Amino acid sequence: MAYGFEAKNDNGKVIINDTIENLHFIGKATRGSNNSDYGDFPGYGGGNDSLDGRVIHYYTITCSGTPVAFIKPSDYSRWHGIIKQSVSGTTWSFDVMVSGTSTSNPPDIYCFVNADDIPVPSGETYGMQVFKSDGTTKTFDSRRQPLAITGGGTAPAPPSDPTNSSGLPGVSSGHSWNYSSNDHDFRSSNRYNATSDSAANTTNAMFACSSLAQAVYKRQQHGYKESCSGCFPFIGCINCQDHHSTAAWWVMYRQAFRLRSGNFDSGWTGYAAGYSFSSSFESGGWFGGGGGSYSTGSMPYTAKTINLQSNAFIIADSSRYN
Amino acid sequence: MSYGLSVFKTDGSLGFSTADITWQTLDQFTVAANASASNTYNEASGMDIIVQRQLVNVPPNSQEDYVPNVSISGTTVSVSPQSGLSSSQCIIHVLTRDS
């Protein structure tokens, strides 16, 4: 270049220049309320009732630029994902999903914005700034700590089937009337794809990678019996009634990530779940009428996996920004 | 170190130096639902480019939210809905690193 500023690192790679902006740390997002649920199927208490559970922690931060958010887990054994990011004015909100139902040990959210968007620290009149050739757009400001990364790459999509049981859950008939016993393990603890990365650790590593993939799956069981007042030789059965029942379990999943020593895992965590049961027969009353039903929640869409795509991830050392 | 650049925090500890690696920001923008975008970043010629996508305002328990596809060709980044599907609003972070 004929003029300007450029700094290369020890490997000869540009890390500061006057054409591209560096990201700088502006602070940790403020944690607000949380919502914990779905450690099991609501309203159901039979087999395979357990789910992974999830906690949604709500965070906000105010800044003029679009922040790149890093998740620093407090409990590295749990799965994490930013499932929603929105802005109102200059206040950014993050919904961060964590597996399990314990609200203790929430993650920290470290936020970085472009050099030109960082607030000027008051009273700090020294340091180094780098501007683009327009003379006004800042690419670097030593008064806010620049992002240094330790690892990253391309995180693969999670496995298409988010459920621990072999095969996807489906619909089966031929069960006895009022049968309701879930035979599918809807948990996701074994369902992930790992990426080897030496920067991944369980002490101070943090990562930036948003949740893209979603899935919904359902197990449904149909029961039936015929009941007659009596059956007689040469006449046959009389006053026969058909009895039908349907039991269904569904779970919605969102992509989530986990840092292990030497690995970055792309997997799943259950976001919402429901259980429904209905029973009926032709006349008379069950639940005081011709049948009865029970339902929690509504399945958001028909069973499928969507957004099964890779996404870039970055790992950094959170201890540099404390 | 005997040469290079070190940037120190106000407390005197090292904050950043030429021993570090980083990703810089080429661009950040939001793609509206069902919209497409394509931008060329000549300043990143010869550098690695990655793109991070973050869905915006997703009501995650009520609808199918399709993330838009991203393709990178040289220094051009293109964003478009998945074939035959309605994409949701999405934040795009375009990052680059000297390769």
What's the arrangement of secondary structure elements?
The complex is a heterodimer of chains A (322) and B (99).
Chain A: E1 6-8, E2 14-17, E3 21-28, E4 30-37, E5 54-62, E6 68-72, E7 80-88, E8 91-99, E9 108-114, E10 129-131, E11 138-141, E12 149-155, E13 171-176, E14 192-196, E15 205-208, E16 214-227, E17 230-232, E18 236-238, E19 241-260, E20 263-281, E21 291-295, E22 304-306, E23 311-317
Parallel strand pairs in A: 13-16
Antiparallel strand pairs in A: 1-2, 3-9, 4-5, 5-8, 6-9, 7-8, 10-11, 12-23, 14-20, 15-23, 16-19, 16-22, 17-18, 19-20, 20-21
Chain B: E1 6-8, E2 14-17, E3 24-31, E4 37-40, E5 47-55, E6 69-73, E7 76-80, E8 90-98
Antiparallel strand pairs in B: 1-2, 3-8, 4-7, 5-8, 6-7
Q: How would you describe this structure to a colleague?
A:
The complex is a heterodimer of chains A (322) and B (99). Chain A is elongated and about 105 Å long. Chain A is mainly β and 322 residues long. Chain A has 2 domains: 6-152, no CATH class; 159-308, no CATH class. Chain A has no helices and 23 strands. The model of chain A is unreliable at 284-289 (pLDDT under 50). In chain A, strands 13, 14, 16, 19, 20, 21 and 22 form a 7-stranded mixed sheet that branches. In chain A, strands 4-5-8-7 form a 4-stranded antiparallel sheet, with no helix packed on it. In chain A, strands 3-9-6 form a 3-stranded antiparallel sheet, with no helix packed on it. Chain B has one domain. Chain B has strands spanning 6-8, 14-17, 24-31, 37-40, 47-55, 69-73, 76-80, 90-98. Chain B has a 3-stranded antiparallel sheet with strand order 3-8-5, with no helix packed on it. In chain B, a hairpin with a 2-residue loop joins strand 6 (69-73) and strand 7 (76-80). The mean pLDDT of chain B is 89. Chain B is 0% helix and 47% strand. Chain B has 99 residues and is mainly β. Chain B is elongated and about 60 Å long. Chains A and B meet through strand 2, strand 3, strand 7, strand 12 and strand 23 of A and strand 3, strand 5 and strand 8 of B. Strand 3 (21-28) of chain A pairs antiparallel with strand 3 (24-31) of chain B.
